[in-house]
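Message: A physicist's question: would you kindly supply an amino acid chain plus fold tokens?
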Amino acid sequence: MRRIVTRPVSLTYFHALQRGLSKLQMLTALAVIAVLAIVAAPRLMTAVNHAHNPDIVTAEQDIGEIEKALQLYKQDIGRYPTTEQGLLALIVKPTRAPVPKDWKTGGYIDRLPRDPWGHPYQYRLNGEGDGFDVFSFGAHGPDEGDDNPGVIRSKH
């Protein structure tokens, strides 16, 4: 007679369960990777395009120079120019109040550059007067507003 050899039920079930868990784990890992790729890919592409666009690099350099001039202005005057005085206060002594007493003859920057798209750089003093925002509207121009992703801002 032939003898039938059977495996214990618990081992067969355990092996089937192990194979199922491996597939489930792989699907879960793939799902997590897919979600991360969907979230991270647009940001990565924006960063890569941003770093390789010569116009954006030029705008960031210009903004850096304007920031340095604003820091020098604050060292001499004790505060940043008001939003109304604007960036022009770096070249010409402001006549709008508050008029600075210790304004440096010759100004704080040689000239105010235009951004690579031909628009003037924008300046805004924050509400407390201890910080500012210098930005370019970017390639879209002022029509898109200052909250669109193409706006290039100071890091200050």
In short: The CA atoms of residues 49 and 90 lie 32 Å apart. The chain has a mean pLDDT of 85.
